[in-house]
Design a protein that fits this description.
Layout: E1 18-23, E2 26-29, H1 30-45, H2 51-75, E3 79-80, E4 93-95, E5 98-102, E6 107-109, E7 115-118, E8 121-122, E9 130-131, E10 137-138, H3 142-146, E11 152-153, H4 166-172, H5 177-184, H6 189-201, E12 204-208, E13 217-221, H7 225-229, E14 234-240, E15 246-252, H8 254-263, E16 266-269, H9 276-288, H10 292-300, E17 303-309, E18 320-323, H11 338-352, H12 370-373, E19 376-380, E20 385-389, H13 392-395, H14 404-419, E21 425-428
Parallel strand pairs: 5-12, 17-18, 20-21
Antiparallel strand pairs: 1-2, 1-17, 3-4, 4-5, 6-7, 8-15, 9-15, 10-11, 12-13, 13-16, 14-15, 19-20
Length: about 425
């Protein structure tokens, strides 16, 4: 059995946190909520004009993706591939000398495990796909993913204004799917683009939850070029942006995905829901870290998030709050929860800690993120107290001149001062 990807349960969060999300009128829960939310965030990010908010949403979506990718990679006995920008589209994981993609799509199965409904698959992530205009190097083999030097140069714009470039050809045929597939079957730049996308579609892993079961399995489906070229359910989409950029995407219709899943062999079985509560808590923390502006934008865009919380917790950033217990009249609506305070403090720590060079007392360096992730903050607004905990391992570094508590307390103080116009006492919880 693979390890819990979240480590120990964060005992500071004793509230009952359940996570669900509603996208396009459909509500998902637990593992399905995670998959739907991941897909929804990515899809929404492509439509955000505000660069700051867009970057924030993409960052959160990537964190969600990393959680799922690490878990699936470990189940399959592989490892997560490091993302390399400017290399076209790249698979998520590698195992047994094969590259594989993890797709967060929603699938409905009946009691016998037969898929009755599935969402479509976008090969190059959710949204418009790969920007052909800006891509200058591209990965075409597994080795290229291992070594930057083995990626190959490419210019899809070559010939524009003179001989038709690949972009010119694709744009001219954007409404003719059959013609697009013929163009992509050619050599040169077309062959490089085709091979790049086949790395993403050649082996796709989809966590599927059987209705009524808490043991999702991971189904492997494969779309070689032949299956794309000769299948009307496999579509090529060309999108022209207002600034002149051209995007390339391959997608498979919901019906085709459903039938393919039903024909697929089970590659692995994994009780992902074993960690559903930890998953929910992680999502709650990440979501709480979003700015109010980003949250508002997502809410308007039709992505709704519900947190079910127990008495004592205040508003967690966004979404609708369903109270499982009657809150006392003394609840102060102007204050945020310990979950959100913790998220903000962790982000402040990560932003203020040095990420480079050797650590020099008294300051710790940001390395793996484990120190930051071990910090939990527990506000008591009635008494004006902020208590915190961190992994005792880091306090042992005090013998070497390091002051981890000072770094944590400074971040808490900065966060609290930015939120409230009152003083709080900050202490280390025992």
């Amino acid at each position: 059995m693979a390890r819990n990807p979240f480590g120990k349960v964060r005992r500071g969060f004793d509230s009952n946190v359940n996570f669900s999300t509603t996208i396009n009128g459909i509500t998902y829960k637990d593992t399905d909520a995670f998959l739907a939310y991941r897909k929804g965030l990515y899809a929404k990010s492509f439509k955000i004009d505000n660069k700051k908010i867009k970057a924030e949403v993409v960052s959160i979506a990537k964190k969600f993706s990393n959680i799922l990718d690490r878990e699936v990679a470990e189940v399959l006995g592989g490892r997560v591939l490091k993302e390399r920008s400017g290399r076209g589209v790249q698979p998520d994981i590698i195992f047994d000398n094969k590259v594989s993609e993890v797709k967060g799509i929603s699938v409905t199965l009946d009691d016998s495990g037969v898929a009755t409904k599935a969402s479509k698959i976008d090969v190059a992530g959710s949204g418009r796909g790969m920007n052909l205009t800006s891509t200058k190097r591209i990965a075409t083999t597994r080795d290229a993913l291992e070594d930057d030097s083995k990626s190959v140069g490419v210019d899809f714009t070559k010939g524009r204004g003179e001989a038709p470039s690949l972009i010119d050809q694709l744009v001219a045929a954007k409404d003719d799917n059959k013609r697009l597939k013929t163009i992509l079957s050619g050599g040169g730049a077309a062959a490089k683009l085709r091979k790049n996308f086949m790395m993403k579609s050649g082996d796709i892993r989809i966590p599927v939850t059987v209705r009524g079961s808490n043991t999702p399995d991971i189904r492997a489906i494969r779309f070689p070029w032949k299956a794309i070229k000769n299948n009307d359910s496999a579509k090529i989409k060309i999108t022209e942006a207002d600034n002149g950029d051209v995007f390339f995407q391959i997608y498979f219709t919901p019906a085709y995905v459903r039938d393919t899943i039903n024909n697929a062999n089970k590659a692995a079985t994994r009780a992902l829901n074993t960690y559903s509560q930890e998953l929910a808590r992680e999502l709650a923390i990440k979501h709480a870290a979003l700015s109010p502006e980003a949250i508002k934008y997502l809410e308007v865009g039709g992505i709704k998030v519900d947190f079910i919380i127990d008495k004592g917790s205040a508003l967690i950033g966004a979404g609708r709050i369903k109270k499982t217990k009657k809150e006392s009249k003394s609840t102060q609506q102007g204050f945020i929860s310990g979950i959100q305070i913790t998220a903000l403090v962790r982000k402040r720590l990560e932003d203020t800690m040095s990420h480079f060079g050797e650590a020099t007392p008294p300051l710790l360096k940001y390395r793996t993120g484990r120190f930051v992730d071990s910090v939990n903050v527990f506000p008591n607004y009635r008494t004006g107290l902020m208590s915190y905990t961190l992994n005792p391992l880091y306090r042992s570094l005090e013998d070497y001149g390091y002051k981890p508590d000072n770094q944590v307390m400074a971040s808490i103080r900065q966060v609290v001062q930015s939120l409230y116009s009152r003083q709080f006492q900050i202490i280390r919880a025992t």
